């Protein structure tokens, strides 16, 4: 049976390809998602994005029993959301935290991830390829 992986993107990631291309690149996520589907033909990939914290929490809750893993880029909520960390801790599905940029090489307020202690692991700083690496971590 094929593995099922859900990719969840948080706030402002709907603007990938347009927002600060020097940091986040010039490719939109929908285009990159098509590439991921080609790279992982034997993995059932789904994608969800929201700028709303509660919707992200609901989506993570709903992953339980439906997915084998979640790749989560929580965006700015990485550094602020205890509720998102609690949602990750409340499900048995493994979650891999991903970031396009290396958050440790950016502003000091980005150095702390409230979700990392609840995640299986973290991948950061490899551009959009961080998602591919996160999926590999889940299916390996």
Give the SSE map:
Elements: E1 3-9, H1 21-24, H2 29-39, E2 43-49, H3 53-63, E3 69-73, H4 82-90, E4 95-99, E5 121-124, H5 129-139
Parallel strand pairs: 1-2, 1-3, 3-4, 4-5
What does this structure look like?
- With 140 residues, the chain is α/β, with parallel strands linked by helices.
- It has a single domain (7-62, 69-123), classed as Rossmann fold (3-Layer(aba) Sandwich).
- It has 5 helices and 5 strands, in the order E-H-H-E-H-E-H-E-E-H.
- It has helices spanning 21-24, 29-39, 53-63, 82-90, 129-139; strands at 3-9, 43-49, 69-73, 95-99, 121-124.
- A 5-stranded parallel sheet has the order 2-1-3-4-5, with helices on both faces.
- The radius of gyration is 14 Å and the shape is globular.
Summarize the structure.
By secondary structure, the chain is α/β, with parallel strands linked by helices.
**Overall form:** globular
Order of helices and strands: EHHEHEHEEH
Q: What would CATH call the homologous superfamily?
A: Dehydroquinase, class II
Any idea what the radius of gyration is?
A: 14 Å
Quickly give the structural class: alpha/beta
Highlighted features:
140 residues; alpha/beta; Rossmann fold; 5 strands
